[in-house]
Design goal:
single chain; mainly alpha; 3 domains; 3-stranded mixed sheet; two-stranded antiparallel ribbon; 15 helices
Length: 427
């Protein structure tokens, strides 16, 4: 800002000059520090130190992004970009920083919002959350939910700080459902209406496709493809083993994973056309969880933890199978009802529904081929009971057996008084 002295002469503002100089000095120091980090010899760093460095870089990245958002927010507030003739701030960023316009708009949106929610800015600067968390967190804020978001966003922020990303996303979806049920149903209908499939043949005879599915339809298609792809993988593995006389490497199989997926889609179409007339159409399975309303609320979700609305579920009930799972406490399954077809192993199903994801803290995906692991190994007297079982992916089930010193506790804790007695054997 300029200052006019007594003679009418414009002179510079010392305070403004000092602030500008300090900003330049800080940025220069940051560049120097990052350059030094880039030159660090990592060969001599121990494994533990390297893991600590990875986490420290995450914190630094958050701090840098938060600082950038603070600067961009002030630059946007002053509308500085207008001096260059840009139509919008996003257009200026996109042009000057060679960014996709969508990314420029996202950065501006975050910069504007963190000015309004300082606790989010603080968590970002501390490296406790990153931009992906902000995209999800602010994604639930809309005109219909703004008042509730202003009052409750710190609860969602705590979820981002403490939970795995999949659980945090589920928390946000659940929060949206309760705060804006009509909007959630409309979004679900929009998702359903957005389904599409394009399959076109090129001049050269090749076929190119693109598809979009709603959560339920997509899960049906993806699971069927995975099942057929697994069959093809086993066939490729057997053929390569016979050819080589040993267990093959992945690169020695007859098809790449992408080729197997393509062949699986063709096989799915072939099977659809050759299905017997009296065959039964595959049906989605809806699990109705009873007794947890005060703990989680009346939420519907697919087994892969995708939250869906009651309206979405209702549209599929005429085609779906339904099973009942009754909880007595947050982790104690006391009954698993019968499906209308081919359901066995109630104890296994109880553990699958209770745990949903692999027991290992770094693995938050629903296992494609889940295994039930004995918390206390069966070879050491562990019982095959609900309290002593936990869901695991094949990798971490094997990993646990080879790394007993790095085992992780299951949920529920074996000492949990709410766990109650072992469930009856319903098999």
């Amino acid at each position: 800002m300029a200052i006019i002295d007594g003679s009418g002469t414009e002179v510079s503002n010392p305070a403004s000059h000092n602030a500008s100089s300090a900003t330049a000095d800080v940025l220069a120091a940051a560049r120097s520090a990052l350059a030094a980090l880039h030159e660090v010899d990592l060969d001599g760093v121990s494994d533990d130190e390297l893991s600590q460095a990875v986490m420290a870089c995450q914190e630094l990245r958050g701090a840098l992004e938060a600082a950038e958002a603070r600067v961009v927010g002030e630059w946007d507030r002053r509308r500085t970009w207008r001096a260059d003739g840009a139509k919008t701030a996003a257009a200026w960023l996109s042009s000057r920083q060679r960014l996709p316009i969508a990314e420029a708009r996202r950065r501006l949106r975050h910069a504007r919002l963190v000015r309004r929610y300082p606790t989010v800015a603080d968590a970002w600067a501390a490296g406790e959350v990153d931009r992906s968390h902000l995209t999800t967190l602010f994604g639930v804020r809309c005109p219909r939910t703004q008042e509730a978001f202003d009052a409750e966003h710190e609860d969602l922020l705590d979820s981002a700080r403490t939970r795995g990303f999949a659980d945090f996303k589920r928390h946000c979806d659940t929060w949206t459902f309760f705060r804006d049920p009509d909007g959630a149903e409309q979004d679900a209908r929009d998702d359903r209406d957005a389904r599409e499939l394009h399959l076109n043949q090129s001049i050269g005879g090749m076929w190119f496709g693109r598809s979009t599915f709603d959560p339920v339809s997509g899960d049906i298609v993806a699971e069927t493809l995975r099942m057929i792809e697994q069959e093809l993988f086993e066939a490729d593995w057997a053929a390569a083993k016979e050819r080589l006389g040993r267990d093959p490497l992945a690169i020695e199989l007859g098809r790449t994973p992408a080729q197997r997926r393509a062949d699986a889609e063709v096989e799915m179409a072939v099977r659809a056309r050759t299905a017997p007339k009296d065959g039964r159409r595959p049906a989605p399975l809806f699990t109705v969880v009873v007794g947890l309303e005060t703990f989680t609320g009346p939420i519907l979700e697919l087994f892969n933890r995708t939250v869906i609305t009651p309206g979405t579920a209702a549209g599929w009930l005429a085609q779906a199978d339904v099973e009942r799972v009754v909880f007595e406490s947050p982790s104690r399954v006391i009954d698993v009802g019968a499906q209308r077809r081919f359901f066995t192993g109630a104890l296994r199903r109880a553990i699958e529904v209770r745990d949903r994801t692999c027991f290992h803290p770094t693995c938050d995906e629903v296992p494609e081929h889940p295994e039930i692991d004995h918390i206390h190994p069966a070879g050491k007297g562990g019982k095959t009971t609900q309290r002593n079982g936990r869901l695991g992916c094949g990798f971490h089930n094997r990993w646990r057996n080879h790394h007993p010193d790095h085992d992780h506790p299951a949920s529920p804790d074996l000492g949990d008084p709410d766990a109650g007695p072992d469930p009856p054997d319903l098999d």
